[in-house]
Structure formats: C-alpha cells, structure tokens
Task: structure prediction
Amino acid sequence: MDTIERDYKVFKVIVAVFILIFLWNKISFDNTVLRNVDMKPFEEPIQEKLDDEEVVQQKFRDGHAFITLVEKYKIYGRVYDKHYMPSKLRLASIVPYDVTIGWGGLHSKEVFKTIKTTMVGRVVYWRFSSKCPFNEKEINSMMSNNHLIPANKNVKRGISRLKKKDVVYIEGYLANVAIHKPHVVERSTTSLTRNDTGLGACEMIYVTRIVSRHGDFR
Result:
C-alpha cells in the first residue's frame, strides 16, 4: 500500500467519524413530537388534584412501602441529568432513579449547553454561563429534579434507558412515600409546586407511563 492510498483511507475514516458525531448530536437533540402523548411539547407540567388520595403498596427485600398518590401529574421536557441510586441507600429500594428535566425554553440545544448540573446525594445543583438567556429564577421555574417510582418492571426499563439530552414524557402521580423496614420507618414527601428550591423541592413521581425515543413503556 503506497502513502497516497493509506492517507486516503485515513481521510475516509476521519470523515466517517465526523459524520457519526454530527448525526449523534442531531439525534440527541431531536425535537420531534413524541407520539400518542396527551400534552404539548415542553409546556409546563400538568397537575390535577385527586378526589380521594389512593395508597399503593410495594414489597421489597427488607420491607414494604406505602405510596400515597396525591395528585395526577404529567411532565414533558428535556433530560438534563439522570442518576441511579443503589438499592441499599435511603428510599432507593422504591425510588431508584433521579431524573432532572427542563421544559419551556430549557428544551433547546443552545440553552442546554449553557447549563451544567451536578447531583450530590439526591439533590441536584446547577450553574449557568453568561450565554444563558435565562436568569436563576426563570431556570428554577422551568426545571425540576424528579425522584421516580416505577409502577412496574416495564416502566422501570423505560426509565433505565433514558439518556441525557433525551426528550421524555412522564405520566403518573405526585406521591408521598413511607418505607417500613425492621425497626425503622423512612418517609419522604413530594413537592407540589414548581417554584420551590432547596431540600424538599423535588417532585416524587409514581410513574405509570414513560415515553421517549426508546419506546412507550407502561
């Protein structure tokens, strides 16, 4: 193989790599409307009070949980961050995933690139650059950290497949959780507003359906 032929093959590989990177970025920020979803893309989460609260029970290895469904809930946005919590940690037997979601103006590629998130424990911290078109208060009103409780194994599979940048639709209920283990009861309460911050501001969602580019899981 002479030098010209070798250089040409290297050139083709480099071009192919750039094409793959371009296509990956395009897919990652695909704004295509999710199918069969009863909600406008990236609008503010929809919350509806229940006539009567319902309690769902789930069993796990070390005990069982009482999940009180408080209000119906739907959210459609961009995944900014996602973390899986080992089941040995607090509440993780029932609430295994934390997913940070941005909606409204936070859905775009340009804005996504200006905001960085960091998860410490089960709390998300974020910072934004000078290029971000929104201020701190506006970002707080369009982003939430969500503790997700899968209603079944299929929903859990759908959550596990989520990646950063994915567009996602989640349907279910805001819920309070009481986990009963030998000699201890652990409790966690959901936020009921999008405007709070700090500890206790996370939405705890009992997820009955999740839709993304990976499929429709319910």
Notes: The longest helix spans residues 3-28. Helices lie at 3-28, 109-112, 136-140, 153-160.
